[in-house]
Design goal:
By secondary structure, this protein is of the alpha+beta class. It is built from three helices and six strands; from the N terminus they run H-H-E-E-H-E-E-E-E. It is elongated, with a radius of gyration of 22 Å. The chain starts with a helix and ends in a 9-residue tail after the last strand.
Amino acid sequence: MRSTALLAALLVACACARPRPPDVAAGRAALQEADRAFNRATAERRTEGWTEFFADDGAMMLPTGTITGQAAIRERMAKAFADTSFTLTWEPQQADVGAAGDLGYTLGRSEARFRDEQGRPVVRTGRYLTVWKKQPDGSWKVARDIGVQDPPQARPGP
């Protein structure tokens, strides 16, 4: 009888227990670190570093349309990284996660460097928004990525 009452109390306690909400501050820090690791991987391994941070169904949103899936993203970015003068770097300035702790975003500034057709160095700056989704293994992968170039700086007149 005693064990039945104890078992009943244990079942009631388990049924009433609610999972602890995710630690939002830790989630934000994890997202910023994931974004910085994404930047480092891209600097070190270029196309492969870029591609590995996307979820299998991740997408890049471009002015010309949306590119979805790692294979299509790899193909698109391989063209950019084929230019050995091309570099792309960024730094997250803000991150947030949803209440469930499985979706989040990073915002930041980016810089692309390359040489134009005449061999002159070009620097383009911009802003980006990356939506991240937590994977079953606990890692964060890019679900959607969009970047916007800053307007060209006004050139001084003659």
